[in-house]
Design brief:
The protein is of the alpha/beta class. The protein contains ten helices and seven strands. The radius of gyration is 20 Å and the shape is globular.
Length: about 300
Amino acid sequence: MRDVEIDTPAVAETGSETGAGQALRRILRTAGRAALDYALPPRCPGCGVIVGEDRQFCLTCWSSLHFLDGPACARCSIPLPTALPGVVVECGACMADAPPFDGAPAAVAYGPVARTVALRLKYGRRTGHARLMAQLMARPLAGLGEGGAGEAMLLVPVPLHRWRLWSRGFNQAALVADALARLTGAAHDPHLLVRARATAMLRGKGRRERERIVAGAFALAPDARARAAGRHLVLIDDVHASGATLRAAARALRRSGAARISALSWARVVPDALMTSNIFDFASLDSDIDAERIG
């Protein structure tokens, strides 16, 4: 497993770095990178073959990713291949029952490679995958800021209940949100939203059952209104399956006084009718998957 960063000692605060010091840092960084590449060569996060750089997919895995950057519903961001680019349109489901957010894009469609990356982060402790996911989520995040009223954006990871956080050791959504914040400069508040109660696993449940399980599962932090009022809150999660978790979290955020609420995920399960290459049933998946492990 390779999940480390190469860096060199910081420059002393008492003076600026000389040209010789800069050259030394470059030499040390190059030597350190060469030693690390020899001992632990960078590997594709999808299949594990050796690749040229960290957080780089091999050609086969990269080619298999389906980027969700085409026409989509203006409310839930489900792909709408027949819609005209640039035309604002909503899907039938959103017109019948609008979700509590304005846009919920994902970087890629859920498939074998996207699934492997998500599960290796969540259960394989490959925390460096959070940075990889953030790199590909930065573009749809920028898209969420377009066409708004200029509200300051605030990234809010979907929280875990404390029991699950203690057993896992980290919240994968918070790691991704932190990486996105570092990459884009957006503000990040991992404690604005809390998981008020533990919930049963959503794996294998139908849409209505999922909605029932997560209803009322989220609550605002005591001072949430002061931190969120008038801002554009963007929920961050790893996998968007049925959307039950994101809708429940967004409903809780609605009470914060935010000007706008959106959601952003690494991967989204897209129905077969919209993308025939995705054969996964949303009822078997969710951001709360707990039955599968990938090392």
